[in-house]
Amino acid sequence: MESRRGMNPMTEEESSELAAMRRIQRLSSHISPAMTAPPSLPLVQAETCSSRAKKLEVNGQALSLYMKGKHMDIQEKVYEFFNSRPDLQTPIEISKDDHRELCMNQLLGLVREAGIRPFKYVADDPEKYFAIMEAVGSVDMSLGIKMGVQYSLWGGSVINLGTKKHRDKYFDGIDNLDYTGCFAMTELHHGSNVQGLQTTATFDPLKDEFVIDTPHDGAIKWWIGNAAVHGKFATVFARLILPTHDSKGVSDMGVHAFIVPIRDMKTHQTLPGVEIQDCGHKVGLNGVDNGALRFRSVRIPRDNLLNRFGDVSRDGKYTSSLPTINKRFGATLGELVGGRVGLAYASVGVLKISATIAIRYSLLRQQFGPPKQPEVSILDYQSQQHKLMPMLASTYAYHFATVYLVEKYSEMKKTHDEQLVADVHALSAGLKSYVTSYTAKSLSVCREACGGHGYAAVNRFGSLRNDHDIFQTFEGDNTVLLQQVAADLLKRYKEKFQGGTLTVTWSYLRESMNTYLSQPNPVTARWEGEDHLRDPKFQLDAFRYRTSRLLQNVAARLQKHSKTLGGFGAWNRCLNHLLTLAESHIETVILAKFIEAVKNCPEPSARAALKLACDLYALDRIWKDIGTYRNVDYVAPNKAKAIHKLTEYLCFQVRNVAKELVDAFELPDHVTRAPIAMQSDAYSQYTQVVGF
Ligand SMILES: Cc1cc2nc3c(=O)[nH]c(=O)nc-3n(C[C@H](O)[C@H](O)[C@H](O)COP(=O)(O)OP(=O)(O)OC[C@H]3O[C@@H](n4cnc5c(N)ncnc54)[C@H](O)[C@@H]3O)c2cc1C
User: pTM of this prediction?
Assistant: First the structure.
């Protein structure tokens, strides 16, 4: 509050002159529909940037075309439907119960009125499914998640973990929303540790049925989407218990998935033996009805075991093509990576929205300025650029990386190639955790970058932040997922030394490990020319070197500590190191994809804009980790200084094309409906909101 006082003391004459200029500027911005940049390069920038700072003229159309997804047509269909149905748009203020009903009606409208059938695409064209999810999530994130629960989690578990008999019986009902369902994995005592689940499914050979039981309160299924109000079925993950003829009497075959009806198809009453409670009001996503499920000897037919990876015969014999519980468990979870792919992709969508709102506002908003001159756009402050420009560059980086992930996932679903399965598994875990963590932090940065107006609910940061926050936890907690990436890297590292092959995403390790082991080059460590620093080879080598170093070091540390602490203790002792390794690897993959995307862009000015963003992404990351590079003399002091200066310069250059870069996301109007992002008439839009 009152921070202006004392900063720029002005005479009365100066202040009335300024006020008049401001009014003229505002008026002219109302007349021009385009976003107006400040009339001249403000002093703040002129001082910090050299004469090299010429504005790049970008062909916005070419850039937009390059960024356009393959499935814009179906996204347009989603937007058109919701634009034509104001009654299905989520108001700013809505109660939990109304929001849940609205969300269900939105989904019904999408499927039964607009005729968009996402389930077909879960099965046959995942790229299209993710495009629908992105569009639907921009209407209301609760709707995106509700759709994900129905089709990707409940539907996906039936078609991916079950066999033909399940698909034949359930596909149409899931598709048309007659069979609304849940994915009941998490329990009160166990979330991340899925192998620790306690719910049981005991085979009764006399009746040819499984009996589902919640043995104690800790095994109550918790947080289950669609359970509190709308679900009729649940895929329940439970330990399969088979009777045996030995002294133990039963055998625990590990966690399997079962279809359990939870509500009556006609009356919607909860079925006998099933108890359902509401998980209540949440921090966000209140359009989704999360509930808790308890089972008391609920009987289901043997056929309800989703038996793709393990089956039980009429006489209680267990069969599986996979030899061990661990392998079956791995295969089961492996089929569920689609949810993670979707979240990574959707999270980039949220980042695009929030960066767009904050950048458009920052271009328009003016505060302070040199004496006797108009106020400057807040995006001309170096601090604002440092908050938002690396974020804009990262948004592009993650866009290309997640598009790649979605393509690989689709290819994997078609080919079932074993190496690709392993690649997609680690890549989806890594990108999901890395991108969602970044977006969650950026939402707060964007809110702050828009000052007080960023705090008005109508400007969307609050709901975006609250709804998106849980992306970091569900479909696998980010810290846990990063460990899977690190474990995978270590496994491949070990295999490499045993003569094994490295899959595509990891193949860079072979070369960079050799570079790492041969020590940094003292000559190149001093190179500081702009051409060198902007050379993709230097950037990628630096990222790869860091990953190889982290990998080599952590492998040695683990070996040392495991002698005294055992495997679990050694892992825990090195945990932060392992997480840094995983992040470093993911950043390396992201940069490689960005560099490729720049190279493939056909139009020169669009390519140049992307190259600016890509360089900013790379150098900003190197600068943020400069201590690591300096410690091992990979970068000499003069080079570190040059990297810092160039990063600042690139921030400014990207600021100069920020409007074009943001416009190229081509977000539909309803997405940027935040009044502060409404370009030229922002303030009049905004005053209307509060009733003037
Ligand atoms: C809104 C919402 C919707 C959900 N929907 C569903 C649903 O439809 N179906 C369903 O089955 N589940 C659902 N979940 C549950 C969700 O998947 C779990 O919350 C998630 O898997 C994390 O488990 P947890 O909550 O038990 O956290 P925990 O595993 O207890 O984690 C708590 C903390 O401990 C840390 N931690 C845990 N293990 C480790 C480790 N090995 N190393 C280091 N740190 C560790 C984590 O990083 C985290 O910070 C939902 C949850 C929410 C909130």
Answer: 0.91
